[in-house]
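To fix ideas, we reproduce below a protein record of this kind.
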Amino acid sequence: MCRLVLITFFTFSCAYFNTFYNAQDAFKNAKIIIDNKKYTETDLPIEAKKFLDEAILNSKITLQNYPNSKWVEEAYYILAVSSLLKEDYKGSKEYFSILMETFPESNYYTESILWLSFCEYSLDNVDSYNNYISKLIVTNKKFNRYQSYIYNQILAKVSIDKNNTEDVYKYLNLCLKNSSSDSEKINIYNQFINYSENIDDYNTLVIYLEKLYDILTDDREKKNIKLTALEFHKINKNYSYLIAEIERLLNLSSFNDKRLFLNLELGKIYYQMKDYSSAKQIFYNITSDNSKKKETAEAFYLLAKINIEESFDFSTTKELLEKSKNEKSSSKAGKLAKKTITKIEALEDLIYEYNLSTNIDSSQNNEVLRADSLLFYIAESFYFDFSKIDSSILRYKELIEKFPNSNPYAAMSLYALNGIDPINNFIDPSESSWLDIAKQKFPDYSIENISSQKYIDKLLPMLDLVNSDNLAEAYILLDEILKNDTELSFYKGLFNEIYFYDTDEMLINYINYANTDSDKRNIDTVKEKLSSYYYIINEDIKNLKAQAKLSDCCDKIINNYDLDSIYFCFEEINDIDDYYSYDSVKVRINEIIPGSPSSFKRNMSHFDILYNNFQSKFSFISDNIVVDSIYSPNSFSDSLKKMIQSSIITNDENNTNPSSKIIDLDRYLSRYEGLNFVDTSKNDIKISKEKDIMKFEDLNFENLELEKLKLNLTK
């Protein structure tokens, strides 16, 4: 009997001890994870949450099944702190209150008051928080090391909310002074790093990143922190330190897998220092020793940037950018290289057409844009696309000298120079300032006159209706708001384009706007839209007509028409292609093509894909129906027969007859016959990128890409 009692007692004791031990162990593990979490982690780590849930569950089992055990006090403590760490401040407050009432002599009593104060503060009970803190101060309660650690963390948190940086740093340093383990130090370092990053205090940030690096034991974590520290040292322009530190890291075996990255970073530091000779040497070494990596793509891209800075040789720069793109087109550098190539080609087009426009002997002179506008766009490109300030100033000054009475381009150039060269370093000694010249020569031109804010304010009620999907009411209100305003037709056109998908009304309004003989803030936007739509509609008609004609030709082939009849049919397809070719289109819309016609064609080229696919099919059929001078449909290959058959439009297909679509598209093109583009040489206000641009995006409408312009033109 005695043995049975002893066995039962020990079994009971082991069970309740194991339950509480599991709670203690889970709680300890959770705290270690939380103290050591990365400074970038703002949420409670998932593993820590699991351990806290386990600690809470086992503590509750201990309280429920063993209410008289010696572990009850600590079970309440684990419940309270675990709930607090999970940000359950109400639950935590409840458990701390029970702990203090049940165990007034508890070793956790002072700590409980501290945590209770934090719970009250977190629940926005500021008076209760102040009462708890005052109670501790009035009683002259002496804190032990860990209590001081908690107390100063709470004060640091309150100081963060008050944006009191001096106190935040003071209290966090006191936390460090009272920390008793590496985990606690890591926790405070992370708080320093987080806060200093949020307030852009990068000098403090790098100090504590370096301290964190020194205390970490995991090589991978140390490496990540060191690389992060390098990034912020770059922001601080600590170039001498960075060069020495990167060269040191390159000699460490633990950074062997980062050698390519570190060498690239070293080159980028020399690049930022404008020590282009050292930077080029490093970048060329990278590209000669490695290939098809994002680092080599960036090295080639930076070599191109250096070329732009030093000589801006278009051919060399494009060659380097092409190499960057080919190394890793999906990388950030590869994508930037592709965009930069496009910008350079656009600038080359502008320069070519400017030179052409100033050549009085050129037979094409009547087909190119005005020289003053082209020169203005060249100056803008040098400044905004390539940050070539000297080249930009040179072109703006050239425009003013060659076209002194050009309005708006001479006026805009003067205002641009005033912005680029506000202290008038590049002005002739005989002149006072760019701004004075602008006001004297063009008194009626003022950038203040083109402010968009009044339109934004006016249209806010209409935008509210748009946001609530009351489009019809919004459109009516737009008419009322901008009644008798020259911009009304522009906004009505844009509304029909974006919301109603009414191509016909859109074109009517845009063309009406373009024909208005007055100052127009959005005339360049309308030019771009009208020319783009003309190109798109033209391509759609060409494709539909060519597809229909090829269907006729293939039907003739299937029905064994003679070869001359089929070739004549093919020639009709070529006639369609000629009539709707870009050269033909350019003549019809030359006056409204924005900027360089060559750049316009290149930007619109992705709308050619459908017709290019047709051309491939047409070429394959026309090139293969005669083999060795013999025309014999019965001997056609299976692939040729299949392509011919698939090219025939049958009545069984959906949207079989393209005629109705062509009629609609022809109607859209006929709208352009009403376009009497007013000569705006004296009053056209081309709004520069540096000015307060009146864009629809400013009004929080959809930001449409060019692909979205197509709407439902062929549907």
About this structure: The domain at 19-142 is CATH 1.25.40.10 (Serine Threonine Protein Phosphatase 5, Tetratricopeptide repeat). The CA atoms of residues 374 and 595 lie 7 Å apart. The longest helix spans residues 523-558.
